[in-house]
Design brief:
The longest helix has about 45 residues. It contains seven helices and no strands. The chain is mostly helical. The chain folds into two domains: about 150 residues, no CATH class; about 55 residues, no CATH class. Bound molecules: zinc ion. The site of zinc ion has 6 residues, from helix 2, helix 3 and helix 4.
């Protein structure tokens, strides 16, 4: 099994980004919904109220993640489109200067003047816009993430994560609901932590520990606050 995947130009880099986004979304779903249900369960014994809060929290979180992702991907795409338009116009209006610019980029990367020139010429002849977009802007034309797709992916990954604590607060007998949810959520966070360590190629221990500690802290705090409200009788 490969421990490291190197982001590469043709697609696998964006696959990694997808995977990273999905793992983060799932982790958010686990943490938020688990915190909500243990918080409410800490205050109120009625399981129906707990489940309604959990479902509402899951939907609210999934929609808010989806909206956030839609906005962020759209504006990134707008920026990239604008840059490509500008590049296209420059290639049309001053092809010589643009060829020189591309040659310089390859010289800076360590090619000799002669090699850089012929690389720039051949790439320009093949697909000038793509050559400039990739070398200068680090954009591959035509490889844009759809904002709708990104929004949908966030919605789904958050929901998948959020369903875990929801199930673990519903299924067990009453005395076990809260501990079962802590355990299920922490186990699920450890899995998302391991996945994100694998995706980023960093050390498992550190990433898993970080994800689990923050998640456990969030649950412990909301549970504590829920208990306090429950005791006071608000
Ligand atoms: Zn250019």
């Amino acid at each position: 099994m490969t421990k490291h995947i190197e982001p590469h130009a043709d697609g696998s880099g964006s696959t990694l980004n997808w995977l990273r986004a999905a793992v983060l979304g799932a982790n958010d779903g686990i943490t938020s919904v688990a915190s909500i249900v243990v918080g409410v369960a800490g205050a109120i014994a009625d399981v129906r109220t707990v489940v309604i809060s959990g479902v509402a929290g899951l939907l609210a979180g999934a929609f808010s993640m989806a909206a956030g992702e839609y906005v962020s991907v759209s504006s990134q795409r707008d920026t990239e489109m604008a840059l490509l338009d500008k590049e296209r116009a420059e290639l049309r209006d001053m092809p010589e200067a643009e060829l020189e610019e591309l040659t310089h980029i390859y010289e800076d990367r360590g090619l000799s003047r002669a090699t850089a020139e012929s690389v720039a010429r051949e790439l320009t002849a093949h697909d000038a816009l793509r050559a400039h977009a990739e070398a200068e802007l680090k954009i591959t034309p035509g490889q844009f993430t759809s904002p709708w797709q990104a929004a949908f992916a966030s919605f789904v990954s958050f929901s998948v994560g959020g369903i875990i604590p929801l199930v673990s607060i519903i299924l067990p007998p009453e005395a076990w609901r809260i501990p079962a949810t802590f355990i299920a959520a922490i186990a699920a966070m450890a899995i998302t932590g391991a996945l994100s360590a694998w995706v980023s190629g960093s050390g498992y221990y550190k990433v898993i520990l970080r994800v689990v500690l923050w998640g456990a802290l969030a649950m412990a705090i909301t549970y504590g606050i829920g208990r306090a409200f429950g005791v006071v009788g608000l």
